[in-house]
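Sanity check

After download, print the first record. It should look like this:
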Amino acid sequence: MFKYRLLIVLLLLSIFYLYSPSSVFSIWFKIDHPVLPVGSSSQWDSKIAGAPSVLLENGKYRMWYEGSDGGKWVIGYAESIDGIIWDKQPSYLLSGFDTSTNFNLNDPNVIKFNNKYYMWFGSSTRSLNNFHINFTLSNDGFIWNQPTFNILPEKNSWEFGLGTSFPFVLYDKGIYKMWFASQGVLNNIDKWRLGYAESEDNIIWHKKASPFLESLPSEGVDLGRPYILKENGIYHLWYHSDKNIYHAYSYDGINFIRDKDNPVLKPGPQQFDNLRVTTPFVLHVDNKYYMFYTGMSTDGKWQIGLATSDDPGFIPDTPTPGPVTMTPTPTATPTVTISPTPTSSPTPEYTPTPTIDPKTAPIILIPGMGASWNSRALYSCNITDSNDNKWKMTPFVSIYKRLINTLTKNAKLKLNKDLFIYNYDWRQPLDTQADNLKKYLDSIIKSNSSVKKFRLVGHSLGGLVIRSYLERYNTDNNVIQALTIGTPHQGTLLAYPLWENGEIWSEDLTSKIALSQILEFCKLNKTDLRSSFKTGRVSYPSKKDLIRSLIPSIQSLLPTFDYLYQNGKVKKTDSLTHQNDWLPKNLFPENRYHIKFDTLSGTGQSTLSNFVVSNPSTSDLAKDIWADGKPMKNNFVNAGDGTVLISSSRLDGADNETVTGDHLKIVSSKEGIQKILHFLQYDEVKVADALDLPEISSDNAIIISTDLSTHIILTDLSGKVLERGDNILVRYNPRVGVYKFSIIPAESGEAVLDTMFIGQTKEYINTVEKIRLIKNVRKTFLLTYLGKNTDSIRIIPYR
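Expected structure tokens:
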């Protein structure tokens, strides 16, 4: 009989495993007593010992926790060699810093970074109101610096209640990421919800406008203490509700899917946690997961318990394709001060088409600002003269050649069949860019009926061109994948001096040359010289006016996050005189346009993070410059590519990758191209050999250009040809000396000749004059260059 029963049991088990889902789920086993109990009646933690934060260092567990004797809440410390038996430090480490807003301290979160200990913790009033998050630093984890208070002030309606607390911070790929809880009203419901924020420097934090998670009816009312463990690209989240602990997972750290086996930890049956289990903290050690948590009992005591599991929680074997959706978090009205990029308004109805192999779709490479050239259009000084079909790769730009060589020579793609380079008028507003890209894609489809889908790859401004197209023409349904590289999805601070006063602060010689060419040619072409003969004075248009009228795309690059500080206070971006005209109205959607959407960011470079500005002067206001303040101090962080902050080049909900390198190297370095190949599913393709990239390796350049159709040749005095160019010639890192250059016109007429020296400082030196040219008649000049530290660059006719 026993054998038959055993066979039946084994049969039932085999059926269960045969039909159960092939997924990972967890069972947590509790230790039946508190591992860190409250202290004796005379001790500072006699009533409460909870909210643990644990590090494992050199075989020793170190715990920081909150404690109270029923009066003041403080932060204490304990150590253990096994995580079960703990030795407490007799006195607490941190106590309240004043008798008002920072009287009680709670919920410490400690990480070790750069051989220092970073602690974020909550504090509140004596009556446990006005919760806010603070930060302090220590060399040893015992002696802590004076904190910085209220680093994450309330901004949104769902935070304006009891306040913000329960911080958990993860330093992930050069970014500080914080998950927290706030209490306030949203959709007429008052409760605690979970929020998210990011920072490049742990000083200025950018919040997601809406909570990323709020309670389900089955969970109770309030959520608290989010804890994150990132493993194998998956973010595991544990959090507590009114009485239980729950698990969720995410592929981006913001959009979470709840565990189907929730709750993962419940109260009891032990006496010490028979009322509630809260504030989970999970470590993964030696193939086992250890959850330290706070157990609350009916006698009013809070004590720290421990549960273990072999697995973190339920995860499907195959990651859910596309974006994951929060359940059931309602979306708050987006603001423009968010990092990462917030949720957009609904997009037009989308109709899916049959699946195709992405590798069969042609690639459209869209370069950044200044990397496309059309002398006739640029020197026309007329934004309506776009001359759309005549744009080509800028002759002095070579940063895309290695990527193109990799795709054409090593991946065997055919140019203008499998790979297209889309050169375009980068001066135009983004809505116009969308229309122009649509015309280009439609023309490819019209000429090749087999083309159904495209893979779009955009560098810098090119990434915003992609977004403008998807935003405006998503229902065309002809894009299968998109990758943006170093794209300012939340703007770049370099746009501020450019838009406010026409000042070029970029050290990127490519864009600097292109912008300065427009400014200098159009300064002369837009000047009414006839009126100057009467007054004896020449009145040139300001650089600011030229930028705003001739390159309106710059306004779409202004930051959407708070980046100006005046009189010790932040100036809200949505209150500024000049604001980004496109990004706040076209927020990145949660559905990612129904396609695979990735980003690639550069980091490790000194990048502008904010300006301290003066009050605008009467003179500046009269000139309509620096209306929101002139920069007096520029603050930098290393979390960016030198042009765009990493938090700006990432997108909330996209697959975000990072490489070390500046704004140009991320698209030309071996590491950057490998990331691009991975996105394109060409992992087996070898990156082409490195090339000389003078726009990256050079500190300065001499530029000779004309607005008529000409061929320009630069030689030394012996006649040796150094450079050639049509309409424009660039000589990187010129030597001090005398040169000779010849202009061979393809047409007759009056031309503007500009000779310019550009370095990596804010200013450039140039001479501009009008000359008479005759078709096919060579005109030759001598050029004297006396060095980059002088203002001497002179030209004289040679013959």
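If your output differs, re-run the checksum step. Summary of this record's structure: The chain has a mean pLDDT of 86.
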